[in-house]
Every structure is written in structure tokens, then in C-alpha cells.
Specification:
The protein is an alpha/beta fold. Helix content is about 45%, strand content about 15%.
Length: about 280
């Protein structure tokens, strides 16, 4: 009798364990099949997340996502906006956190300790690099199809950028007194618009008012001069600089086209080219 009851008990245990194992397997399968839940930590990371990830899969974006320089700000809608605080991010239970400059090393290490994948977006200095980064980030956030769709639109946009420079020389200038060389994203933008760079100095570099007196470009390409904060006590307010700039045609670059590097900036550059420029 005891043997029979023992057999019944063992059979019951096996059934229960089988059901539990099946439920656990189903739960794991469901978790692995659902799209990853994503949080972005800064304004530039926001553009990749908003540009590639469906709203339903975005747990939060940064508190800069709706600023004027945010290209995809119209897609934010009711998505939560947060600052890069550990407790806030953990409460959202994301699978992936996307960043460019947002979040310090300690925060990133703590997030990784909790099993959260960190995707860091690389700086890009040309549209060729932007294309590669679009594909890489698309794969990293589980949205390769979205990346391919954006890539096709991106290629069509590049092909449609009009030659408004017509070989004229151009010098990029910001209120802070900085310019950009041909090896930067700004340089690639201006070259695709049909301009020649006034200087071949590489990277981003400072131009004092005195040095500005020696520059004779056909056109000045300006950015952020409509930013009241950027215009506080900066070289761009110098009477010398203003006189030099006003003496030549000015091409105004949209702030959101130069605030962050990425494939999406091409859309504003195309629009700028279609407006024409004398």
C-alpha cells in the first residue's frame, strides 16, 4: 500500500514539475520574443531611439527630447521624459539604455550590474559614417528593419540635395567663435551643398575676432545665432565679427541639423537646399 501511494506521489510531483517547467519555458519564450524596452539618456541618443523604435517600446527619452534642436521632437507625444538618475531608470525596467554623452561611468556600471545593455552611439564626421552608424544602432536596439527603411529614405535625400553653393567658398561660424573643417559632419554638409571650404584646417577650431579679419569667404554659414543663451558674452557679439559677417551672404544652418550628428540631419540639409540660396 505504501509503495502504491509513493508511486502516486511521485507521479503527481512529476506532473506538477512538468507543468511548472512548461510555464517557465513559455514565460522565457514570451520574454525573448517581445521587443526590447528602451530608454535614451541624452538629446542625441533620443534621435536614434525616436527615429528607429516604435513608441510602444520606448520606456522613456531624455528631458531634452522636445527642445527645438531635437529633430524627432514631434514623435515624443506621451513618452515619459527623464533625467539620467539610476533610481528613475531602474524603475522603468528597460532592457537597453541608449546614450551618446549622457550618463557618467558610475551610472553606466550600475545599469550593467543590473543586467541592462548599454548602447553607446559613436560620433560621426561624415554621412558615410552616419549610414554605418544607423545600421549598427538599428541592429543593437532590435530594429534592423526600421534602420533599412530609414537608410533608403536617407539615400534618396542625399541624392536630392541641390547644389546651392556653386563652388563658392564658405566659412562655418558659431557664436562661441568656433569653426569646422572639411573632415567634420559640418564640412560634409557644406560640401554636399556645393560649397568649397574656406580653410582646410581639420576638426573644430577657434577663430578670434582678429583672425576673422583675415578670412575672406564668399559665404558665412552660421549656426546658433538665434540662441539667446549661446549669444551671451561670446565672440559672435563682437562688433568686428558682426561687421565682417554682415558684409557677406549668410547661410543659416538649422540648429537641429548641427546639434547632433546622424543620418537625420540630411533631411534638414535637403530642405535648406530646396529653398535656394543666392
Amino acid at each position: 500500500m505504501r509503495v502504491r501511494w509513493a508511486q502516486y506521489f511521485l507521479t503527481w510531483v512529476a506532473i506538477v514539475m512538468g507543468i511548472s517547467a512548461g510555464a517557465a519555458h513559455a514565460s522565457l519564450s514570451q520574454a525573448s520574443s517581445r521587443p526590447p524596452k528602451i530608454v535614451s539618456l541624452d538629446g542625441c541618443a533620443d534621435q536614434y531611439v525616436l527615429g528607429l523604435v516604435p513608441q510602444a517600446d520606448i520606456a522613456a527619452v531624455s528631458d531634452r527630447a522636445t527642445l527645438p534642436e531635437s529633430f524627432f521632437r514631434d514623435r515624443v507625444g506621451t513618452i515619459r521624459r527623464v533625467k539620467p538618475y539610476l533610481e528613475t531608470i531602474l524603475s522603468l525596467q528597460p532592457d537597453i539604455v541608449v546614450r551618446t554623452w549622457g550618463g557618467d561611468l558610475r551610472l553606466l556600471q550600475r545599469l550593467q550590474h543590473h543586467g541592462i545593455k548599454i548602447v553607446t552611439i559613436n560620433d560621426v564626421s561624415s554621412y558615410d559614417q552616419a549610414r554605418d552608424e544607423l545600421y549598427r544602432v538599428g541592429d543593437a536596439v532590435g530594429q534592423p528593419a526600421s534602420a533599412r527603411i530609414e537608410a533608403r529614405r536617407f539615400e534618396e535625400t542625399l541624392d536630392n540635395i541641390q547644389n546651392i553653393g556653386r563652388g563658392r567658398t564658405v566659412l562655418y561660424y558659431t557664436p562661441g567663435g568656433y569653426s569646422a573643417g572639411p573632415d567634420t559632419m559640418i564640412g560634409d554638409m557644406l560640401t554636399r551643398l556645393g560649397f568649397r571650404m574656406e580653410t582646410q584646417t581639420k576638426g573644430f577650431y577657434f577663430l578670434s575676432p582678429e583672425i576673422m579679419l583675415t578670412k575672406k569667404p564668399d559665404v558665412f554659414a552660421l549656426a546658433f545665432f538665434d540662441d539667446s543663451v549661446a549669444m551671451r558674452r561670446v565672440p559672435g557679439r563682437s562688433p568686428i565679427v558682426r561687421r565682417i559677417i554682415s558684409a557677406r551672404p549668410n547661410l543659416i544652418l538649422p540648429s537641429r541639423a548641427v546639434a547632433c550628428g546622424g543620418w537625420f540631419t540630411a533631411y534638414d540639409i535637403e530642405s535648406l537646399s530646396l529653398q535656394g540660396f543666392r
